[in-house]
Amino acid sequence: MTKRLLALLSVLVIASMALAACGTPATEAPVATEAPATEAPATEAPAAAYECTDALGCVTIAPDEPVHIAYWGVLSGPDSSLGEDSKRGVEIAIDDKGGKILDHDILLTTEDAGCTPEGGATAATKLATDTSIVGLIGSSCSDETVGGIATLTNAGLTTISPSNTRPVLSDPARGPDYAGYLRTAHSDAFQGKAVAEFAYNVLGARKAATLHDGSSYAQALQQVFADNFIALGGEIVAQEAVAKDATDMKPVLTTIAAAQPEFLYYPVFVAVGGYVTAQVRDVAGLETVALAGSDGIFTADLLKGGGPNTEGMYLSSPDFSAFTGDYAGFIAKHEAKYGGSTLSTFHAHAYDAANILFAALEKVAVVEADGTIYVPRQALRDAIYATKDFQGITGTLSCSPSGDCGAPVIAVYQIVNSDPASWNPADTANPNPKKIYP
Amino acid sequence: MRTSPGERLLDLAVSGVLWGFRILLVAAILIGTIATIRAGKYTSEQWIDFVVFGISQGSIYALIALGYTMVYGILRMINFAHGDIFMTGAFAAYFLATWMNGTGFIDSYPILGLLIPILFAMIVAGGIAMLVERIAYRPLRGAPRLVPLISAIGASFFLEYAFRGFFGPGVYAYPPIKALEGEWDILGIGILKVQVVVAVAAFIMMAILYSIVMFTKVGKAMRAVSESKDTAALMGIDVNRIIVSTFALGAAMAGAAGVLYSLIFRQVGFFMGFTPGIKAFTAAVLGGIGNIPGAMVGGLVLGIFESVGPSLFLEGLGITRPYQLKDAIAYTMLVMILLFRPSGILGERITTKKA
Amino acid sequence: MKKENFLWSAVKTGLIVGVVAIFICFVGMVEVFSKRDVIEKLITLGQFVLLAAMFSAGFIASRHTSSLLEKNKPVSNLVAGLVAGLFTGLVLALLVVVGAEVNLRAVFLNATTTLYDVLTLDKGVGNVWILPLIGAVAGLLGAASLLLPQILRRPITQALVFVIFMAFFSGLFRVVMINQGSDMSKAAKYLFGQTGLTLEGTLIFFLGVIAVSMLWSYKGKDIQAGVTRLPKAGRLSLRVIVYALIAYVALGLPQVSGPFIAQVIVTVALFVLMGLGLNITLGFAGLLDLGFVAFYAIGAYTVGLLTSYGAFGLQHIPFWVAVPIAVLVAMASGAMLGLPVLGIRGDYLAIATLGFGEIVRLLAGSDFLAPFFGGPQGIIGIQKPCLGTLGPFIRVDVPRVCNGLELGKPQDIYYIAVVSAVIIAFVAWRLRESRLGRAWMAIREDEDVAEALGVNLIQTKLLAYMLGAAFAGLGGAIFATLIGSIFATSMQLIVSINVVSLIIVGGMGSIPGVIVGAIALIGLPELLREVSEFRFLLYGATLIIMMLAKPEGLWPSQATRRELHHTEVEAGVKA
Question: Which of B235, C218, C338, C398 is most enclosed, with most CB atoms within 10 A?
Answer without folding.
Answer: C338
